[in-house]
Amino acid sequence: MKLKRLYSTFKYDLDLIEKELENAVCSNSTLLQNASLQLLKAGGKRIRPVFVLLSAQFGEYKIDTIKNVALALELIHMASLVHDDVIDEADTRRGRPTINYTWDDRMAMYTGDFIFARSLEYMTNISNPIAHKKLAKAIVEVCIGEMVQIQDKFRFDQTIRDYLRRIKRKTALLIAVSCELGAIAGKTDERIYRRLYKFGYYIGMSFQITDDILDFTATEKELGKPAGEDLRQGNITLPALYAMQIPELKAEIIKVNEDTNKEEMQKIIHLIKHSGAIEKSHLLSRRYLDKALHILQELPANRAKRPLQEIANYIGKRRH
Amino acid sequence: MKLKRLYSTFKYDLDLIEKELENAVCSNSTLLQNASLQLLKAGGKRIRPVFVLLSAQFGEYKIDTIKNVALALELIHMASLVHDDVIDEADTRRGRPTINYTWDDRMAMYTGDFIFARSLEYMTNISNPIAHKKLAKAIVEVCIGEMVQIQDKFRFDQTIRDYLRRIKRKTALLIAVSCELGAIAGKTDERIYRRLYKFGYYIGMSFQITDDILDFTATEKELGKPAGEDLRQGNITLPALYAMQIPELKAEIIKVNEDTNKEEMQKIIHLIKHSGAIEKSHLLSRRYLDKALHILQELPANRAKRPLQEIANYIGKRRH
C-alpha cells in the first residue's frame, strides 16, 4: 500500500512526534494521564502531522521547529475527538473504549481541555504571529461548527451547502491549517502557504465526503459500527441529501430517528445505495480531489509533491 | 464602598471591555450566542480585566493593546466557569440559570470551548512570545488543577499543602497571570512584571481562602446557596482542614457526604465555626494579603499602586 511507503520515508520524524505526543499528555495527575494515554494508544492516521511535515518541506525543514506545529495540530484534533465522543455518547473509538465510557463525561471534558491546553503550549514555540492568528481563527470556526452540527441534527430540510459548510469546519479547516502552518513554520513565502492551505482544504473536503459515503457502503466490520449510523443519529450527510432529492426517498428518509431499528436502517441504506446518491457523492469527492491535485501542479518542484499526490490518491481510493 | 470608586476611575476602559466581551461571544450560531450572552449578563467582578489594566499602568498604557489581554483573561475565566458548572452540576451562577441547566451539559461543553477559542483569538494581537508562553503554561496548570479537584473530592486525608496547591491552580494562577501579562503587554521590564505576578498570586490565594471561609460564615442569602455546600459536595477547604486537626471534629466531618441533610450540615458548620478554624483561616488569608502589600511597596511609584492597594484591602474585608 502506497501510504505505508510514504510514511516510511518520514518514519524517523513521525516516531519522534509519536514519542512527544506521549510526553505531551504526561501530567502529575495519574487519572488524567491514563485517560489521555488511552486515547493516544488508540492511534489514528496522524494525518495532520504528516501534512505539517510535508508542507514544511517547501521551506526550511527544521524538525525541531516544525514538530511543534505537528504536535499542536494533532493535539487539537485529539482534544476535539474527546469532546465529540461525549456529544455522540460514543462507547468506543477505533475499537477502544472512549474516555467518557471508561470514566465519565465530565472526566472526558476536562481531559479534552487539558490536551487542548497542551497544544497551545507547543504552539508558543512558534514565533510567527501569523501562524497564531490563523490557528486561533480556525479553532473558533471548528467550535462554531461543532455547535452547528448539534443544531443541524435531524434537520432534514438542510441544503448541500449547509452540509459543505459543516464538513469544512469539522474536517477540512484543520487539515488546511496543518498544511498552511507547516509551510509558515518552514518560512515559505505567502504564495506557497496560501496554496498549501487550499490543497489541504480540498483534500479535507474530499476526505470527509469519502468518510460519509463509507458510512453507507462499508461493512459493519470495516466501520467498527453499524452502517448508516450517522443518519440514524441525525447527522445528515451528502449521500442522504442527494437521495432526498427524490421525493419518494425523502419520504422514507425523514422517518429515520434514533429508535429506527437495524432492519429498517438496512432498508433505507439499500434505497440510498440504489438511488445514484453514492455515485453523485463520489463525483463531488473526486472534484475536490482534482482541485487539490491541480493546486499541487502550481506548487514549485519539491520532494514533498510526490507524497502529497500519493496521499491525495489514497484518499480517493480508500475503502475504510 | 472603595472598590466602586476604583472602578469609576477606569469606567471608560472597563465599559469598552464589557462591550467587546459581547462582541467576543457573537457568532452565527444563535444558540451558541444566546448561551454565551446568558453567562455574560450574569456579570461578575471582572477582577481579571481590572488587574490587567492596573498592571499595564506600570508600562506604556495603550488600551488598544492592553484590552486584548484583559479580554483574553476574562474569557478564559468565563470558559472555565462554564465547564466547572457542568462538573458541579450547578443550576445557577450568580442567581442566573447556568448553561448546563438551561440547555444541557453538552451544550455547555461546546460553549466553554468556543469562549476559550475566542480568548485565543484576542491573545494573537499580542506579539510578545513570552506572554503566550506564560499564559499557555498557566492554562495547562489550571486544567490539571480542575482534574485534581475532582480526584481530591471527599479525600479527608488531604493536607493543607494539597489545598494550597489546589487553590493556586484554581484561582491564584490566573490572577497572577492577569497582572503579569498586563505588565508584559505594557512592556515593563522583567523585574516589574515578575513582582506583579507575585502580587497577583498572593492576592489570589488570599481571595480564595476568604471565599472558602465565607462558604461557612456567610448566610444562604449572601451565598446564593446553603452554607457549607463546598464541604457537602466533597470540596474540602481550609476551615474544614483546620477543624479536622481536632480528632473529635475530624470524626464528625469525615461523615459528611452528598446525602448529608441541612440539619446535619448546620451542626457541622457550628462545630467548625467554634473550633478556631475560621480564625486560623483568616490569619493565613491575611498573611497572603500582607505579602501582596509588601510586594506592592517594592514596585516603583505609580498611580496604579493606590487602587491595587485598595483592591487588596477590599479582599481582606469582603463579606460576600
UniProtKB/TrEMBL annotation, chains A, B:
Annotated GO MF terms: heptaprenyl diphosphate synthase activity
InterPro entries with a match to the protein in the record: GerC3_HepT, Isoprenoid_synthase_dom_sf, Polyprenyl_synt, Polyprenyl_synt_CS
UniProt family annotation: Belongs to the FPP/GGPP synthase family.
Signal peptide: none
Keyword Cell cycle in record: no
Gene3D superfamilies with a match to the protein in the record: Farnesyl Diphosphate Synthase
Cofactor(s) listed: Mg(2+)
Domain of life from the UniProt record: Bacteria
EC number: 2.5.1.30
Coiled-coil zones: none
Keywords for this protein: Magnesium, Metal-binding, Transferase
Name of the protein in question: Heptaprenyl diphosphate synthase
Keyword ATP-binding assigned: no
NCBIfam families: GerC3_HepT
Pfam annotation, one family: polyprenyl_synt
